[in-house]
């Protein structure tokens, strides 16, 4: 028998939070309904050849018109939380707080109130990649006015929804925004600028996050009693091959530091980027003839604001990679965030593959990752904010046995991390509550626990079998 069938390690803590998640652009539709402003994902998906089959999120799951239906399905799952995101341009069409769209506020109020009446806590992400286009026209995340603008938007949300929302996530997966959005441009806003832009965007995101965190701490925490954090996309990395040598172990550490340490080292360790990252980017910038490092630096007062600016560590995790050293003198003039790592990754061909090319099912990776986070970032409370698997297909398939296997395997490894490695995991969130717009892949990859018919104008939802599996696990854990 496989190890996970034999060793179950009992049950989850009684106050453990179970949850399912979505994000605004991926489910809402209503892209220009009732005064909503254009976002960078509206613009990007309306540009030919950016998205598979030129699909868009114009209608998506039509969740903008389906509050009652969505909430009743969430309630049926018996989860404690539902994680969704607010579309910034639905509330502030131009991104700044001088122009409010009341219909947007009404929509999120209805969502939050319905969840609470259903006994489900809302977990709200403020930024899941859909920047108001008007702000992008002014430099987007590369212009440091974004720090103030984001803070104003966050402040409004805390003030308006914070009497009912007790878990806030400022940014979802900044790595994706900075590298895919501003580095190689395969995601909105489609900027190709791999040498500097990712570092500048990240610098602004970290400062914007910290500023919003301090706003909450100062104005709302005492009365509202909520928690604020940021969510990371994290692929675990192992050295490649049984003959991996010292340099590959070091390369593996750099992959993790450039991916995760980039954001979380400043917040949880010392207010600043990881040493290895500062060293590599500075050294390569110098070799490339630059006077200063392409990695910006924080002032002392910024460091003070950033250090400690999270009440929990938000973790999105799907898969594992194998890392190896790539240094070579003739690659020094390849000026790019990616090359700065002097490391690369691949996956093992024996790992079971999902529909998404980057996603292999490697359950043990999550346990190792959780232990690494505990050690590296001073044992923070970890809220797993996404974990899941995709299939392809347009015809209805409700027997998603691969998703049952994935949840069973990964969730059991989370339990081992809690029970055997003493990692402080406070909750687990499955991605996704229902099939939705999978970014550049359009509707060709389905991550949902509910199957959505995207060719029916009503967008009906149908329960897949993984729902039953997830409910069993939530209720009974993995009894001996
Ligand atoms: C999450 O990203 C997102 O938060 C969520 O919105 C999304 O739907 C979900 O996962 C599933 O993808 O094809 O080489 O360009 C997970 C991290 C980062 C994984 C971008 C896929 C694309 C790699 N994702 N990556 S590539």
TrEMBL record:
Active site per UniProt: 386 (nucleophile)
Family to which this protein belongs: Belongs to the glycosyl hydrolase 1 family.
Name of protein: beta-glucosidase
Native source species: Ciona intestinalis (Transparent sea squirt)
Section covered of the full-length record: 499 to 978 of 978
């Amino acid at each position: 028998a496989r190890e996970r069938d034999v060793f179950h390690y009992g049950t989850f803590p009684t106050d453990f939070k179970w949850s399912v998640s979505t994000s605004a652009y991926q489910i809402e539709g209503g892209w220009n309904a009732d005064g909503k402003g254009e976002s960078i994902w509206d613009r990007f998906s309306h540009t030919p050849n950016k998205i598979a089959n030129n699909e868009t999120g114009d209608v998506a799951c039509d969740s903008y018109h389906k509050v009652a239906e969505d909430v009743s399905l969430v309630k049926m799952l018996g989860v404690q939380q539902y994680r969704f995101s607010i579309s910034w341009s639905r509330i502030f069409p131009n991104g700044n707080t001088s122009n409010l769209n009341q219909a947007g506020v009404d929509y999120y109020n209805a969502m939050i109130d319905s969840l609470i009446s259903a006994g489900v806590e809302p977990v709200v992400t403020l930024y899941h990649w859909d920047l108001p286009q008007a702000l992008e026209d002014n430099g987007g995340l590369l212009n440091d006015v974004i720090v103030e603008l984001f803070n104003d938007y966050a402040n409004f949300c805390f003030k308006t929804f914070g009497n009912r929302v007790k878990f806030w996530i400022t940014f979802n997966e900044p790595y994706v925004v900075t590298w895919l959005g501003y580095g190689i441009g395969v995601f909105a806003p489609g900027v190709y600028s791999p040498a500097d832009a990712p570092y500048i965007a990240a610098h602004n995101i970290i400062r914007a996050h910290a500023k919003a965190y301090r706003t909450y701490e100062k104005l709302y925490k005492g009365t509202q009693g909520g928690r604020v954090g940021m969510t990371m996309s994290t692929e675990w990395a192992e050295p490649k091959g049984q003959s991996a040598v010292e340099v590959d172990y070091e390369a593996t550490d750099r992959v993790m530091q450039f991916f995760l340490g980039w954001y979380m080292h400043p917040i949880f360790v010392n207010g600043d980027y990881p040493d290895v990252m500062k060293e590599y980017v500075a050294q390569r910038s110098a070799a490339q003839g630059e006077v200063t490092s392409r990695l910006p630096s924080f002032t002392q007062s910024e460091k003070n604001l950033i250090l400690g600016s999270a009440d929990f560590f938000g973790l999105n995790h799907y898969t594992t990679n194998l890392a190896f050293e790539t240094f070579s003198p003739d690659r020094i003039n390849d000026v790019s965030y990616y090359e700065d790592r002097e490391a690369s990754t691949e996956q093992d061909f024996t790992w079971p593959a999902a529909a998404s090319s980057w996603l292999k099912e490697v359950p043990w990776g999550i346990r190792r990752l959780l232990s690494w986070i505990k050690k590296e970032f001073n044992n923070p409370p970890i809220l797993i904010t996404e974990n899941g698997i995709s299939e392809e297909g347009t015809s209805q398939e409700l027997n998603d046995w691969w998703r049952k296997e994935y949840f069973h395997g990964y969730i059991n490894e989370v339990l081992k991390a809690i029970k055997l490695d003493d990692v402080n995991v406070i909750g687990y969130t499955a991605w996704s509550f229902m099939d939705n717009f999978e970014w550049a892949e359009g509707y060709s990859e389905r991550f949902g626990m509910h199957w959505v018919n995207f060719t029916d104008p009503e967008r009906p939802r149908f329960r897949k079998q993984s729902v039953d599996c997830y409910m069993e696990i939530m209720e009974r854990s993995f009894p001996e």
